[in-house]
Amino acid sequence: MKDCLFCKIVKKEIPADIVYENENLLVFKDINPQAPVHVLAIPKRHIDSLNHVSTENQVLVGEIFSKIPEVAKKLEIDMTGYRVISNCGEDGLQTVPHLHFHILGKRKLRWPPG
Ligand code: 5GP
Ligand code: ZN
């Protein structure tokens, strides 16, 4: 989608520190990390948010989840644990309107989140 920040990262128009990539998805380091490990897993195809997940794109979204164990292992957080978050909409404090899953680890996270 034109003018979408994460679509531009997918197209390599904006640089990102990529930790995993295949034809359908991309995992890259968050520019403003909230934990020693903080990456974003996104579908390459633009989806606005969790509100737009449906049977039409469930395979793609499922593929992101199926890759999380592999990514966690690569980032060496699989044994110590981690958290996956998707902020949705205004109250969820979503700032980039392209579906993404934060993966945070390598520190003891607090609960509940703010
Ligand atoms: P949200 O606030 O929508 O849940 O998450 C958006 C995330 O994207 C934020 O954690 C923010 O730090 C990250 N972010 C914003 N702009 C960029 C960028 O240009 N590059 C990278 N790698 N991350 C970004
Ligand atoms: Zn996009």
What does this protein look like?
The protein has 114 residues and is an alpha+beta fold. The chain has one domain: 2-Layer Sandwich (HIT family, subunit A). 20% of the residues lie in helices and 22% in strands. It is built from 2 helices and 5 strands, in the order αβββαββ. It has a 5-stranded antiparallel beta sheet, with helices on one face. It is globular. It starts with a helix and ends in a 9-residue tail after the last strand. The mean pLDDT is 97. Zinc ion binds next to α1.
Q: What's the pLDDT, averaged over the residues?
A: 97
Based on the coordinates given, report the CATH architecture: 2-Layer Sandwich
Biggest sheet overview: 5 strands, antiparallel
The CATH homologous superfamily corresponds to: HIT-like
CATH class: Alpha Beta
CATH topology: HIT family, subunit A
What best-fitting shape do the alpha-carbon axes yield?
globular
Strand pairing plus helix content: what structural class? alpha+beta
Low-confidence stretches: none
Reading side by side through the largest sheet, how are the strands ordered? 1-2-3-5-4
- Overall radius of gyration: 14 Å
What are the bound molecules? Answer: guanosine-5'-monophosphate, zinc ion
State the end-to-end CA separation: 31 Å
Order of helices and strands: HEEEHEE
Per DSSP, the total helix count is 2
Q: How many strands in all?
A: 5
Number of domains: 1
What is the helix content? 10-25%
